[in-house]
Design goal:
alpha+beta, 7 strands
């Protein structure tokens, strides 16, 4: 995991997470591995960008609430997506990222 200055400027920070979906027991129609990049701006807003081989790129606007990731808006390849249209593996990766952010891993 790397922590670098974000391209958003100011005091924003970026963290990268590699998620082994098999190791996290995320099964079904999902890739084996995903990378999530989380940017946190000065206002505490999170942007979670999720990418995996041969999959669309996903972006989530979220915040941490009561120890879990609360997703406000979801985008796929830049277009807004409804909750019902988000693949299970994307939601599970977001959950893992939320757990890691809370646990400081």
């Amino acid at each position: 995991m790397a922590s670098t200055q974000s391209a958003h400027g100011g005091s924003a920070q970026t963290k990268e997470f590699d998620v082994d979906l098999v190791g996290e027991r995320i099964r079904g129609r999902s890739p084996d591995h995903a990378r999530a990049v989380v940017s946190v701006d000065a206002n505490g807003t999170l942007r979670v960008e999720i990418e995996a081989a041969n999959q669309y790129d996903w972006q989530l606007d979220a915040r941490i609430v009561d120890g879990s990731l609360d997703i406000a808006r979801i985008f796929c390849e830049g277009d807004t997506v409804h909750d019902a249209d988000v693949p299970d593996w994307v939601e599970r990766v977001a959950s893992v990222v939320g757990e890691r952010l809370e646990g400081g891993r």
